[in-house]
Amino acid sequence: MLLYLASLVNLLSFFGLILPRIGVILGVYFTIYNWRKNGVIIKKMNMIPIAFFGYFMLLAPTLMQSQLLHYDNFSHWALIVKYLLTQQSLPDVNSTIIGFSSYPIGTSLWCYYFVNFVGFNDGVMIFAQFCLIMACLYAMVAVIKDKNKSLTFAVMFLVMTLFNYFNIAIRMNNLLVDFILPLITLAALASIFFYRKNMYFMAVMTVFLTGVLGIVKNNSLFFVMIVLGYFVLTVLKYRDSQWPIVKKMLLLLSTVTVSLAPYLLWLWHINQTFGQQLSKHEVSVTAYQDIYEAKTPEIIYSIIQEFCHHIMSLSTVPTQGVIVINALFIVTIYVIHVVFHQKTQLIKGFILTNGVIIFYYIGILLMFVFSMPNEEALALAGFDRYAASIVTLGLGVYAFFAVRAIDQTFYEQDIAMRTLRSFASVKKKYLYQYMSSTLFFVSALLILSENNGMQYNLNTYPESLPYKIKQLVGNHMILNKQKYLIISADRTQVDNYLTQYVGKYYLYSSHVDATADISQLNRTQFIHMISQYDDVLVIDKHYTFQAMSRKYLHRNIKKGIYSTTFLLKYADNN
After folding, report:
1. In three state form, how does the secondary structure of 281-298 look?
2. Are 107 and 129 in contact (CB under 8 A)?
């Protein structure tokens, strides 16, 4: 939030310089302080820090070696971090290299904070986002009543590792924020629950977490409303003579207002900076109206039909996620209510979770109808990625309800009295141990599977388009106005603009074009095409371009980058 406010008043460079250094100083101070106070820093450890340490140490090395691959890293999420680092300011109306100028910069600033201190690198940015992910996951543990009971944590840890499967559309080895949205939401919900008896501190935590959540992505307002809704209910349910209704209303009004302030401040900034100039995917009535007017009733019907067919298909990962959420709720409700005869809030959680999922799916459908061009809407572009967010949230909410309900079934309800013998029978103790061990074992397998998947991506990176371009041009860090033409034999990647976006990112210029089909050009057209650019980048064996270069330019062209002056030096003589 400090970096965000600093960026709005052109002090990003100053705060980006001093904040990490202040953090290091405070880290050293509190380490020494705790050492002197407690004598030892590491006391008796339970499974929580051990499991998280193992999770972190397994994935962190892989992520630090990872390279950017996903399309949207190059179209925006990595590009904006690079821009913030090199320009030390927010994009303005002249920053033509940033096409998605209306996108909030919450996680981009977080990654900027790391690379500004450590150095710019794909792995550093990915690792920075992983640190944020781990912080959110660790915050979820606050909901567990007894931290020394391995079964409740085993259930929650299994859910955390399940997140990776349903996030497979983007994985953690990229900078997209669709996985971040539900995790910050879950962290905020956990903090409200944990501090529910301390109104002031709960309000402060809510302000900070919803403030950050609101500037992560344009659609984050949906998740902000969920957090604020839970905060309002928690405050209204609080019973204390020192908190009359008027005082509660003032707390609610001030907290909600300040929580929404960062999001509203971003909208104001966009309006003041860009005015009526619309950017891609902008939250704007005008933009929505223009897109919607291009849709005929037949197209809208086709979009709805495709949407319904997709969400009903069992091969769709988000649909599998919704089924898993409901199955987990139903099985847990049956065991708790029928087998153990305990009353819980699981049924309320079941209804609430499904209600949120339905509303979110309706929101996705409306987005396809109102804010996406026809071609993307009919293809349901990005659906699995968007839906993965709500599946992650649903699984997290299930974990919250489940761990509290499971704790209520334990033989000894007084946490202070619980020991290794606090079981109704030896048989139930063995059952408890076997279940805990099995859940941890399955969690470990899921983590290894996720790590292996990212290792596979890392091993196949040399075959990717980003690798081809990066190997030829490196990673330019000075924003320039050079005009580049990329020659590629892969027409699909040119037509979907991946080649252009990857070139724009590594060449760090807004004037990057790509072409694959040049077979219809005559000599004059071929030379004219080249003459419009400063440099031409040939990234693979494009036989047509090579043949035309030999014929019209008298140049034997292989993979590489060539200046237009070099290519056209002898063109006029033939």
Report:
1. CCCCHHHHHHHHHCCCHH
2. yes
Of 139, 131, 163, which is closest to residue 48 (Cα–Cα)? 139
Count the Cβ atoms, other than its own, within 10 Å of residue 49: 13
Residue 474, Cβ neighbours under 10 Å: how many?
10
Q: What is the pLDDT of residues 373-408, one digit of tens each?
A: 888 888 888 899 999 999 999 999 999 999 999 988
Full-prediction pTM beyond 0.90? yes
Q: What is the largest CA-CA distance in the chain?
A: 96
Instruction: Confirm if 1 and 213 have CB atoms less than 8 A apart.
Output: no
Q: How far is residue 390's CA from residue 230's CA, in Å, rounded to a whole number?
A: 17
Q: Say what the pLDDT of residue 31 is.
A: 87
One-character DSSP codes across 95-132: -TT-S-TTS--HHHHHHHHHHHHH---HHHHHHHHHHH
What is the phi/psi pair of residue 281, to 5°? 60, 30
Report percent pLDDT > 70 for the chain. 93
> Do 202 and 196 contact (CB within 8 A), yes or no?
yes
CB contact at 8 A, 221 and 174: no
